[in-house]
Amino acid sequence: MTRVATPIYMDNHATTPVDARVVDAMLPYFTGQFGNAASTTHAYGWQAKEAVDRARQTIAAAIGAQPDEIVFTSGATESNNLAIRGVADQARRRGNHVISVATEHPSVLDPLKKLAARGCEVTLLPVCQSPNPHAGHIAPEQVAEAIRDDTILVSVMLANNEIGLIQPLPEIGQICADKGVLLHTDAAQALGKIPVNVDQLGVDLLSFSGHKIYGPKGIGGLYVRRHRRRVRLEPQMLGGRHEGGLRSGTLNTPGIVGMARALELCLDEIDAEAPRLAALRNRLFDGLRETIGDVALNGPALLPELRLPGNLNVSIGQVDGETLLLSAQEVALSTGSACSSARSEPSHVLEALGLDPLRVQSSLRFGLGRFNTAEEVEAVLHILAKAVSRLRKMTSPLNPPPSRR
Ligand code: PMP
């Protein structure tokens, strides 16, 4: 086997390394062109504003939006908060009901909990149960049935960060448009990986993040529809009225430039990169089943229309996921999602699929990305096979002695 550098990083849903071409684009804006984009009286400010304007245009064009519909934030967490709390605060008199899905990211679910605590009614739709090629999906009719006269917002993520599932947004968008209800989508995992166009998806609000697309951390954005229908939002960050008053705070010029360059690169390369990642992912799944055995797929079928190309989520029988990763430190993966594993709770996404607790506990999430190679996939298979075989020889609650099985 060719030697590969370890630890092998296959946790690209948690974050991605910044592409060197992105770093090159950002560097001038830390030193020579360091101006504040809001400074209107000198060249430093003008240069920064020009760079931000160019980046705004690039990002808007990439998702089929207009530049004045992009609000820069610190990341998708802030964008999700701004979308959900911003609409709810604005629409208090119009209605008090929000619809979302059980498998959303915590940065959607937690603001919804906060709204519920102040008296807002929140409907969380259940998803298609496992095993099913559509496990994790909601049916558009569920949204249609849940919408009421007082519904102010529907929030459905485009692609899930744990099981890579792609929700049927265009159909949901059509339903929301017909009923005159705003639709928000968290596209943090989808942007740059699958085509994203705000009109085709039928969304009014769309969250995205720099560090999931080989750009920097701490920068993201929210698309807020202004044309054809104007979305009204209550700002959540008050101050110097940047970003049309929707998000105050000095703009992160290098971050914005980097995120735009990162998105440009993703889109330039998507046609070759998506099938390359899907092939690596499929080989990984086949290899796990051949070399390890008792490997179950979590989430939808490995098909391009159902699942992100670089995502794989499996449960490995008789092995605790966390123990496995700690005993195989040459690979960098996660169990469930990195965000919720900071709290070390079982994955709410896998639970929502109806998986039993042992299967949730034995889950591993792979996120293949731009810098992963076929050699790395083979090396990971080898490393995991060795670690699993060692662990399966030991007894544990997940691997009881034969008499208790
Ligand atoms: N939504 C999804 C689907 C995500 O995967 C993440 C990152 N784990 C976020 C939101 C939060 O993004 P950020 O880290 O930019 O705040």
In short:
With 405 residues, the chain is of the alpha/beta class.
Which keywords apply here?
405 residues; alpha/beta; 3-stranded antiparallel beta sheet; 13 helices; 13% strand; globular; disordered C terminus; binds 4'-deoxy-4'-aminopyridoxal-5'-phosphate
Description:
- Strands 2-8-7-6-5-3-4 form a seven-stranded mixed β-sheet, sandwiched between helices. Strands 9-10-12 form a three-stranded antiparallel β-sheet. The protein has a two-stranded parallel sheet with strand order 1-11.
- α1 (20-26) runs antiparallel to α8 (253-291), α2 packs parallel to α8 and α3 runs parallel beside α4 (106-117).
- The protein has helices at residues 20-26, 43-62, 76-90, 106-117, 140-146, 169-179, 198-201, 253-291, 321-327, 338-341, 348-352, 357-361, 374-393, and strands at 8-9, 70-73, 97-101, 121-125, 151-155, 182-186, 205-209, 220-224, 295-297, 311-316, 331-332, 363-367.
- It has 405 residues and is an alpha/beta fold.
- The protein is globular and about 70 Å long.
- Bound molecules: 4'-deoxy-4'-aminopyridoxal-5'-phosphate.
